[in-house]
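Hey L., structure's done. Input below.
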Amino acid sequence: MHKHIPNAVWAWLAAFVLLALLPVLPEPVGSAFHQELGAKVLIMAIFALSLQLLVGYTGLVSLGHAAFFGFAAYTVALLAPQSEAGNGWWLLAASVGAAALLAFVIGLLVMRTRGIYFIMVTLAFAQMVYFVFHDTDLGGGSDGTYVYIKPEFTLFGHRLLDLEQTAHFYWLALLLTAATVGLLALVLRARLGHALVGIRHNEQRMRAAGCNTTAYKLASFTLAGGLSGVAGFLFAVQHGYVNPEILAWHQSGNALLMVILGGIGSLPGAVLGAFSFVLLAEWFQGMTKHWQLLMGGFIIIAVAVLPQGIAGGFVWLRERWQARRRSPLPAVPKPQEGTP
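Output:
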């Protein structure tokens, strides 16, 4: 039966199993610092995966994606009780629902635009959300607000995860990352995913074939907003603090760089891009306070050398290896009679 399971599924399962082992590895590999860093990477991976659905599969380049990420984080901070642990299931559902609802409302207003106009309009709406939280007392203004006690995930009265422990939070982030990958893989194999890819290649042809492209793009925009809400929930719980900076345009730019660095139109590319971006940022910040210069230079070189991203580089290496295996060995000339 396992022969019917694609190799890509086995590769994802192997990767998630290996990542799940991080907290049980001896120090310094399995230290609390590396678990927190790993959770940070996984949160950004979910954020990049949600944007990949828009950019890589629908052809909608958005510079306002951080609005949904930050809106979900603020939802957690505003709904979480200050004197006791909140219900994790409720807070997760509320943050994802709030982000998806905001994406649906903004999507209704921006879906008639395309190209550079779509980029600018999404950026404008994101900045509006940013200034709502920055210039009002809704979320503590420019000072932000706190999540005083981490939420609890209980089932039939039993606590499943203690998020105060870094290992438990890391496993929760890994579980939600796996769920995001699985959901996107199912969506892309379904009618919705095929329609989105068709819209990315030629929207006019899809419309001429009777496809309601606006509705499909709105569905993609809403789903991507909801998934970025998953990342926003985890961000608020991990840091216990949110401020308007997580809504700013540069957060959307970082997610877009992760997608470009990893490879546009590839789920593994979004994850690899998040891993590369976050780990390199940590490394460069330890070297100099002007780490953005190093990061910018690296991305320029990476894009020049790997135009299809890191995932595209791996695909190129695999195809070269397979072509070499399929190529026949050079014929060995037979020795002629009488020759030594």
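Strands lie at 145-146, 153-155, 158-161, 241-242. The chain is about 70% helix and 5% strand.

-- N.
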